[in-house]
Structure formats: structure tokens, C-alpha cells
């Protein structure tokens, strides 16, 4: 049976599945309309044009700066429309990735160190805080950007190592891979929001390059040696992040920092009102950090009780 005949036979099934899942033309997910899907292609071994018999491009994709990328692989971007009819402009996240954060979370909670590992994690974070405070002081925007470049590392490292462990042991992770990668992506979106408001200077980029390289390798080793220590360190880092954003909010309220309009990416990602301000953005980011604090302390507690993470369901979507 030829591949074209296979496609004709499967096409009704594919169409029915796509429409039933809300991904076809018309009403989509949460009121968003997806009016164009990438072409389904089964002839991956035949990359030449059927019309000309040569390798001329069949499709093209236009980038944000207007440049055209030609391709014959049949992959074109999905066009998504908001409920108000306007186009969805973000490629870094989709409408179903956005959410309304739980800002009622207690931002004052603190895990009191009760054993040597806890104390080691706590004082490690406290020692790291000293040079950061001396350098940034009350330069909140620069501090926030550096903080997010570091805060996005633990979730990615933990998720990656659990992913490899799952493959190596032929076992499920109870959702912890997804939960930690969600955390890393959420932290990255914090950074994407802040760069809409301010661009780092060359020396700040150099600091990020250095700090991220050192921190990634140090955290990787700590997670390999003792995951419960690594999660506890992250829990205390998130506690400090909450404190930093609380100071940011205090300076905005005191008029020491301009309460500028919220960037469009923040309004769409956190489903904020159209007239949202920087204060609203910092407020929801602080809530995110508090949730990350809870997840990592919870992960550490599980392992301190002699259990593996896979034995407890992961808090996926905990925002």
C-alpha cells in the first residue's frame, strides 16, 4: 500500500481526532481559536516537490523580523486567535500555558533548619546572598534578572536527571519530571517578562554567564550526590526570592521605583487585566516563587523520610 493511500485512509480519522480535541478550525482551547494546523506529512523520505521533481521549497515561514525561512518539510506555524479576535503573538508560550496564579499563598512561611543537611543548605544560601546584596543593593530590576537566570536552573537540572533515571530504571516518575520542568519554564518566563522592561548591560550579561556556569555545575553535582540537599537549597533560594520581591513591592509602594504599565507578555501569561502595572507583575511573580519554595521543600521532606519522589504524586500545575 502506497504512503499516499495510507494518508487518504487515515485523513478522516485524523480530522475527527483533531476536531474532537478542540485543535481544528473553530472554537479551540479556553475560547482561543486555532485556525491553522501544521500540514500532516507522511512522505518524509520524499523531500522533493511533486510538481517540479526537484528540491524546491514547498512552504515558507516568516520570522518576527520579516525574514523568510523556506522549507520543504511541510511544517508551518499554527495561527491562534484570542477570544477577542486578535492574533496570538507569542511563540514562547501558548494560550493553554497561561494561568491565573494563586496569590493567596502565604509568602512568610519558612522552613526552620532542623538537621545538619538543612543547616548546610540554609547557610549556603545565606552566604551566597551577601555578595548579591552588596552588588545590587536596591537595583531591583537588575537583581530580578540575575535571580531568574539562576532560579531557572534547579528545575531543569532536577527534571533532566529524573528523566534519565526514569529511562535507566524503566519506571515512572509520578509526574515529578513534568513538575520540575514546569518550574524551570515558569522561572524562564519571569526573565522573559523582565527583559521587556529593561535590557541588561554588558557587565551584567558577563556576570550572568559566569554565575550560571558555576551554579549549573555545582547544582548538578549536588543533585547527583544528594537530591534532598539540592531540593532544600532550592527551597531556601526561593524563600530569598520571595523576600527580594517583597522588597521590590515595598519600594514600588513607597514611590522609589516607577510603577510602569505591565508588558503585554505578562498580561497574557498571567491573565492580568489590560490596565495591569509592574506592581501586579511583581505580585504574581512573588506568588510563583512561593509555590516553588513549597514544591522544593516538599520534595526534600519526602526524601528525608527515606522515600523516593516517585512514591508521592507530584504537584503538577501547582501555581
From TrEMBL:
Catalytic activity reported: 2 a ubiquinol + O2 = 2 a ubiquinone + 2 H2O
Membrane topology per record: Multi-pass membrane protein
Stored CDD domains: AOX (cd01053)
Entry-linked Pfam families: AOX
Enzymatic class: oxidoreductase
Cofactor annotation: Fe cation
One GO cellular component, as annotated: mitochondrial inner membrane
GO terms, molecular function: alternative oxidase activity; metal ion binding; superoxide-generating NADPH oxidase activity; ubiquinol:oxygen oxidoreductase activity
Co-factor binding comment: Binds 2 iron ions per subunit.
Database matches in Gene3D superfamilies: Alternative oxidase (1.20.1260.140)
EC id: 1.10.3.11
Signal peptide: none
Subcellular location: Mitochondrion inner membrane
Keywords: Electron transport, Iron, Membrane, Metal-binding, Mitochondrion, Mitochondrion inner membrane, Oxidoreductase, Respiratory chain, Transit peptide, Transmembrane, Transmembrane helix, Transport
Keyword field contains Transmembrane: yes
Subunit structure: Homodimer; disulfide-linked.
Family in the record: Belongs to the alternative oxidase family.
Protein's recorded name: Ubiquinol oxidase
Source species: Cardamine amara subsp. amara
Organism lineage: Eukaryota, Viridiplantae, Streptophyta, Embryophyta, Tracheophyta
Amino acid at each position: 500500500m502506497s504512503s499516499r493511500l495510507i494518508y487518504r485512509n487515515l485523513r478522516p480519522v485524523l480530522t475527527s481526532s483533531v476536531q474532537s480535541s478542540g485543535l481544528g478550525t473553530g472554537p479551540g482551547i479556553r475560547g482561543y481559536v486555532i485556525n491553522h494546523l501544521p500540514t500532516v506529512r507522511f512522505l518524509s523520505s520524499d523531500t522533493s516537490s511533486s510538481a517540479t521533481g526537484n528540491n524546491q521549497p514547498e512552504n515558507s515561514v516568516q520570522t518576527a523580523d520579516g525574514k523568510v525561512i523556506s522549507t520543504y518539510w511541510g511544517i508551518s506555524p499554527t495561527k491562534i486567535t484570542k477570544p477577542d479576535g486578535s492574533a496570538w503573538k507569542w511563540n514562547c508560550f501558548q494560550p493553554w500555558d497561561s494561568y491565573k496564579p494563586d496569590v493567596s499563598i502565604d509568602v512568610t512561611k519558612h522552613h526552620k533548619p532542623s538537621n545538619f543537611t538543612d543547616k548546610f543548605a540554609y547557610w549556603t544560601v545565606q552566604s551566597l546572598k551577601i555578595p548579591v546584596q552588596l552588588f545590587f543593593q536596591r537595583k531591583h530590576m537588575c537583581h530580578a534578572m540575575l535571580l531568574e537566570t539562576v532560579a531557572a536552573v534547579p528545575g531543569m537540572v532536577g527534571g533532566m536527571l529524573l528523566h534519565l533515571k526514569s529511562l535507566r530504571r524503566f519506571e515512572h516518575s509520578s509526574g515529578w519530571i513534568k513538575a520540575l520542568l514546569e518550574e524551570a519554564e515558569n522561572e524562564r518566563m519571569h526573565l522573559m517578562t523582565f527583559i521587556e522592561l529593561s535590557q541588561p548591560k554588558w557587565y551584567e550579561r558577563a556576570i550572568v554567564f559566569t554565575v550560571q556556569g558555576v551554579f549549573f555545575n555545582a547544582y548538578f553535582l549536588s543533585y547527583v550526590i544528594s537530591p534532598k540537599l539540592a531540593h532544600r537549597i532550592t527551597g531556601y533560594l526561593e524563600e530569598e526570592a520571595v523576600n527580594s520581591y517583597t522588597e521590590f513591592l515595598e519600594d514600588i509602594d513607597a514611590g522609589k521605583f516607577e510603577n510602569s504599565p505591565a508588558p503585554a507578555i505578562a498580561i497574557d501569561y498571567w491573565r492580568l487585566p489590560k490596565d495591569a502595572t509592574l506592581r501586579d507583575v511583581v505580585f504574581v511573580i512573588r506568588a510563583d516563587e512561593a509555590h516553588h519554595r513549597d514544591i522544593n521543600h516538599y520534595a526534600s521532606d519526602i526524601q528525608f523520610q527515606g522515600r523516593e519522589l516517585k512514591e508521592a504524586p507530584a504537584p503538577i500545575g501547582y501555581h
